[in-house]
Each structure stands twice: as C-alpha cells, then as structure tokens.
Amino acid sequence: MTPQFESLSEDQKELMYDTIPLLTVYIAGADGNIDAEETAWAEKVTQIRSYSYHEDLRDYYAKVGEIYAAKLEHYIDLLPQDVARRTVAIEEKLGDLNAILAKLDVNFAARFYKSLLSFAKHVAKASGGFLGFGSINRAEEKLLGLNFLNPIELEEEEDDFEEEI
Fold this sequence. Notes:
The chain is mainly alpha-helical. The protein has helices at 10-28, 36-49, 55-78, 83-95, 97-103, 106-125, 138-143. It has one domain. The chain is built from seven helices and no strands.
C-alpha cells in the first residue's frame, strides 16, 4: 500500500487507485472511441512509472499496475456509453479526489496532481498523428486540464519533480 494513504478510508483508497483507469476512459473516450492503442499505452506508462518515477509515487503506480486491466474493463462496462454522460459521471467521481488530496501531505498531493495531468496527456497523444503518436484531438484537448480537480502546487522551494513519462 502507498504509505501516504494510511489515513484514508477504504473507499478513498479505492478511488485513488481507480483514478488511473478512470482517467484513461475519460481521455481515451473523449472522442467516442476508446482506442486499444490509448489503453495499451496508458498501461505501459503505469508500468514505467512503477519503477522510473518520483519515489513518492512508485508504490502507487505499482499498485495501479496490478489492478489496471481489470479496473479499466470494469469501468468501460459500467460507465454510460454516451460520451457526454460518461464524461460527467467520471468528472463527478474524480471530483471527490479534491477532498482526499486535501487530507494528504501537500507535496505528495501536488506530485500526484501533476502526475495525473501528464498521464492524461500521454493517453491523449497515444492515438493519431505520425505512427499513432503525437496528435491530440479537440475532444481530448478540452479535457486535459482536468478542471474537476483543484490545482495543487508544491510547497518545497526547489521543484525536483520532473515529468519524464
């Protein structure tokens, strides 16, 4: 378990771990088509981040990697097929992260928030463009700001948290 989550309820922990599969459906499904390239790349990013990312988030991404495929399939089946309804449902569910993140160490919460922003961008870039990479369509672009989340900034003086993947 991610040590920072010890103070969270089981439901709150579950939402934290479900965030990445939900975010995948949110971005990949923005254009009405959840593309296999997008979901496969999202899973790969999750795996990479479990060993090659900021140390505060490696345990988180390792746990997400264990449940990613099953949770992704669960949410694809569970959520509405209509893009607008699905988008609203995911925004409402992930909007609950604001109260959870407020309970956590602010630097961890800021790194988590930044990791979600970059994850969303990775998913959006996974389909289209040259050889399937690099192009973000308009529907995805509108969602990339994750406007349902309150922005969180690092309190630390130096920001050594660089987004690589």
